[in-house]
Structures are given as structure tokens and as C-alpha cells.
Amino acid sequence: MAKELNIAAQFEDAGQQRAVADLGIWIFLATEILFFGVLFTAYTFTRYHHPGAFAAASRLTNVVLGSSNTAVLLTSSLTMALAVRAAKLGRRRILTAWLAATLVLGLAFLVIKAIEYTLDYQQHLVPGINFTYAGPDLLRAQYVELFFYLYFVATGVHALHLIIGVGVVGSIAVLAARGAFSKAYFTPVEVGGLYWHLVDVIWIFLYPLLYLVARA
């Protein structure tokens, strides 16, 4: 019996292919969580020992841009979920539209983040390049700078993951527009959605840790 359309040669049927894809993406997501877990652990340990410095540093972050990006990314999570639903229903045009919306929101996040990084540089908050802290306590200044090391590493790696996500969603959108998916085959959309949601969840943790430490 001939293989079903879009079923790779190594799989018996669509169900087996989808199960393997689901297992693969969940293993990948687990490794990503472990990676960011190291950053969260380093942040928690340092903040515990130097709460005053971290509170002072957090007040220097741009909470307006950070909050805007949170709203943008949460909205993109909704549009991605709607795209997956459209794929399951076999609605090609709606699927393509929701994927395009997700792509635009992802790009908007990156643009806002680029603006924020530019302002951080202008305000001399980039460690190792032009960092300056006007506080009277030199020791606290060292840990304020450490906060911004963690800030740029965490948000920079997150932005890199989002850039990858934008590429993935863009590729899936092109395939969707060409009619590559149906009710019987939408695994790439579902897998791409899981990756996108991971990026969103990571930001949900980063946002309060970096922007709201001294604003609660």
C-alpha cells in the first residue's frame, strides 16, 4: 500500500510520525529549559545576596518598553495558538493569516528590544563597554553592573531564540500559503507552536525578574 502524502519513508503512518515529532520537540524544549534554568539560578543566587543592588539596577531598566514587549509576546502566543487550531481544522487561508500575524508580532518584539538596547547604551548601562553607575556605593555599583550582565545575557539569548522562532514561523507560513498542510497533516505547525510558546513562557519569567524587582 502506498505511503500517505507527507509521511516520511521511515514511518508507518501519520500517527507514528506525529508521535516521534512530539517526543523530539519535548526533549528539545526540556534541554532549553535546563539552559535557561542555569541563568535563573545564577540570578536568584546573586539577588539573594545583594537585594539592594539588584533593586537599584532594576529601577534603571525601561519598564515601559519591557511591558510593551510582554503585551506583544503574549498576543503572539494567542495568534500562534489560533494558527494551530486553524491547521487542525484544515483552514489554509486563516492558518496563513494567523501565522503572518505571529510573524509580525515577533518582529515587533525584536524592534522594541533593539530600541531598548539602544537606550541602554545611551544611558551607559552596557557592562564591559560603557557602563557607568552614579550611586555613591562602589561595592553596590559592582553588583548593579553584574545585574546588567545577567540582563543582557538572558534577554540576548531570549532574543536569539525569538529570531529563530521568527524564521521557523515564516517558513511554516510560506508552506501554509502553498497548501502544504491539511487536517491529516499539520505536525510542523504544532511543533513550531510549541517552540513559540516556550519563548513566550521564558519571557514571562524574565519580565518580572528583570523589570519589576523594585516596582512591586
Structural descriptors:
single chain; 216 residues; mainly alpha; Four Helix Bundle (Hemerythrin (Met), subunit A); 77% helix; elongated
Report on this structure:
The chain is mainly α. The chain has a single domain, classed as Four Helix Bundle (Hemerythrin (Met), subunit A), CATH 1.20.120.80. The chain contains 6 helices and no strands. Helix 3 packs antiparallel against helix 6 and helix 5 packs antiparallel against helix 6. The longest helix is centred in the C-terminal third of the chain and has 40 residues. The N and C termini lie far apart (63 Å).
**Overall radius of gyration:** 21 Å
Query: Mind telling me which CATH architecture this is?
Result: Up-down Bundle
| Helix content, binned percent | over 70%
**Beta-strand residue percentage:** under 5%
Kindly identify the CATH topology.
Answer: Four Helix Bundle (Hemerythrin (Met), subunit A)
Total number of helical segments? Answer: 6
How many distinct beta strands? 0
Could you give the order of the helices and strands? HHHHHH
